[in-house]
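Marked as duplicate of an earlier ticket. Keeping the data here for the record.
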Amino acid sequence: MPIFACTEHRIGEGWKNKGGYETFANHTHSVCTAYPYLNLHKDVWQVNVPKTSATSHLFIKAIQCLINEGVINNDAKTDVQGISIFEEFVWRVRLAFFQDARDIGNRAVLMEIAYSLQLPIAEIERVLNDGSALAALFRDVELRDEFRVEGSPTYILNEGRQKLYGNVGYRIIEANLHEILKQPKVEASWC
């Protein structure tokens, strides 16, 4: 879901009193220090700032539509680690922004990534143009609203009756899943 659907509102206005994009960039760098294996571009959120992340999400939905139609074989793995073509595309979009400081709100950047993975450009254009990808994206937005997903990460469990939101530790997630899996149907959940 596009958390940064309008970066000017989310960061430009939302972080205005804290220092705007520069402070948000510093915040991003401080968060990433916990993950030394990440190569964060020194000028992330300073150069080539996307106006929206929604373009990327729309493109991702286009690829999902084509997988669902059987146009793209997502079972074909892109490397020895067993990464699907879909996962590889999403990963490369993240790298384009965070590692290479590219504007992933720009459709041409996304087309370059798709081309590099030998994805069917004409078919991607078709589902972007006929509204299929946009409909799929907005269905995700409807589901977000239906399940009251406030942000990322959010885990919706137990047919929508439980929600774990935010920086929840894996032991909490494990305990909730364990209780759901072992719980008899007539007993109330302990989570």
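See parent ticket for discussion. The chain has eight helices and two strands.
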